[in-house]
UniProtKB/TrEMBL annotation:
It is an enzyme of class 2 (transferase). One of its GO terms (molecular function) is phosphorelay sensor kinase activity. It comes from Pedobacter ginsengisoli. Residues 1-20 form the signal peptide. InterPro entries: 7TMR_DISM_rcpt_extracell_dom1, 7TMR_DISM_rcpt_extracell_dom2, BphY/WalK/GraS-like, HATPase_C_sf, HATPase_dom, His_kinase_dom, HisK_dim/P_dom, HisK_dim/P_sf. Residues 442-641 form the Histidine kinase domain. The chain crosses the membrane at residues 187-204, 211-229, 249-267, 279-298, 304-323, 335-356, 362-382. Residues 602-621 are annotated as: Disordered. This is histidine kinase. Pfam families: 7TMR-DISM_7TM (PF07695), 7TMR-DISMED2 (PF07696), HATPase_c (PF02518), HisKA (PF00512).
Amino acid sequence: MRFFALILLLSLSLSSVANEGVIQLDKQSYQNIGKKLIYLEDKTGELTLNEVKKLYQADKFKQSKDDILNFGNSKSTFWIRILYQNTTGSGSFLVVDVPNLEIVECYTTGINGKAQVIKSGSLSNEIEGVIAKNNFIFSLSKPDQANDLNEVYLRIKTNNFMLVPIKLISHEVYIAGSALKQHIESIYIGVLITLLLLNIFLYISLHEKMYLFYGLYLLAGFVYLVLYLRGYAYLFEYDFRIIIYKYPHFFLALSSMAGILFSWKFLNLDALLPRVKPVYYFMMSFALALMIVSLLGYKSTAASMIRYTTLFISLGLGAVGIVSWNKGHRPAKFYIVAWLFRVSGIVLINLNLFGILELRDYTFEIFPITTTIEMLLLAFALGDRYSMLISSEREAREGLMELVQTQNQRLEHVVEERTLKLSETIVELESSNRVKDKLFSIVAHDLRTPFNSLISIFSLKDMGMLNFEELKMLLNANRKNIDQMRLTLDNLLFWAKDQMNQVSVQFTEFDLKKLSEVLMLVYEPIAQSKNIRLELNANEGSMVYADENQVKLILRNLIDNAVKFSPEDNTISINLERQPKGLRVAVHNVVLNPAAVKSALEGGEKDRRRSDVAGAANESGTGLGLQLCREYMKANGSQLQQNIIGNEVELYFFLKDNSSNPAA
């Protein structure tokens, strides 16, 4: 009966061993051995090695189906049994190729047959017998005999996702197998450090918050990815390493918050999409909640949260980037591609965590590599934005220079105009001063002298001693002065009206011949005193359309000048001749000094100077009448012209008749 019981127990033991693969170390390459392992879940975490061995004998272990064991986010302790045969003749390594397991204990059988344990983990200090860097390497002793079966138990626990790649290899295989992994990691670590240093330099140089947020996003992400996930925290002191392994999700939350702030600044959402601010507040609250949970020490809860928070934040930021690009923000194209890499990395990791995709060694490099590519693309986006700003600044500077040049040209033009106007004003002021001086001269001399003559006549005390003939002769002698005074007063009044802009042209139709005859009667006595004959040469049809008073003043001044400048015993002709241009009105006479007359006429025409020229009998003149003639001729649509041949002078102008009036 005992024999049958022994046979039954031996068969059960052999059946358990049959389900468990024996690892041949001489044929083993640098590969995970998960499918050849069996494991036991210890939910209490209090089982001893002997109790575990009894459960093994009771067939309570489960066979692993994957090369890399995936125990999920569990708070349980797991025991893993490894059975191997070392035929290499040398020692071997048991590699737990993941850095962030909080408890890793390796149980082996010593030389004396007693169990030996080497305790390690991410929260432990350096221990002899294990190399704890970015993985855990346990050194296994050389077997006594090459064909012996060797048994190893691993006890592992962590408050995070428990992914356990295990390798059993010789010394030579480990050195060759880990080289590729180290080469890949050195590449993306170098890229991330370079980007971090470059961004620090840019922030110090430009003092722009966007570079601060990007640098913080990069730094916190570097701590989580490189120091925690890939285990390079071992390079730092124990106290700092413990902070990273206890609160890893704090750095992930900090990186997410910095990424959200960077996105807001980089996409210029204050101007482009201010209405998405509540969405950003919502994403920030997710990241803040993850940070608080991590700081409170709920590492397992934080690990469960990151699967959803990181995916939600990444999708939200990517969607906002697409909308920003559609609204014309050109640098957003690199931003969108960067977030696509981030989302793809997160999705792939989640598919592996949920068991949809099988875990491989490269799975642990997916998120660091996609994040590195994301950081590179964001750096390209910053460069593109900076290039766009430089281009915009250059265009603005060129536009400003063009505007400055245009304004300078306008200013120069305005200065030229103002200078010209100032020069004209100075000329007018000088002319006004000359007119003022001339006006005082006229009043003081040309008006005062005739008045003094009259006053002297009426002041005679012995008026009774003069007979009628003597009195008549005295009055006739002063008539010339009185007529000159009247003409001067008329000229002064008309000139004053003209200076005050109160002269208006009243066009009427009148007979110029009759007007000329009246004026000849007025000047007949003065002309006779110099023995000068006045003659009027006029054909039929002397009707004109002009301002009669102004034309009358013009003729009076021309006749007066002709009488004044003509020597005695000569003739003054007034010629009215109908021509195609209108009625030609001319005053013709002989002068003693044609050069002086020509100078007075041409000088007055060019610069409007009122230069007086003495007459043939030294008669005084103001020059004011000639100026009035030119101005009134212009007002009546004509122009005063002259012909000087020898000592003969002819002043003439044209007047139109009523038929040329559009309103007639």
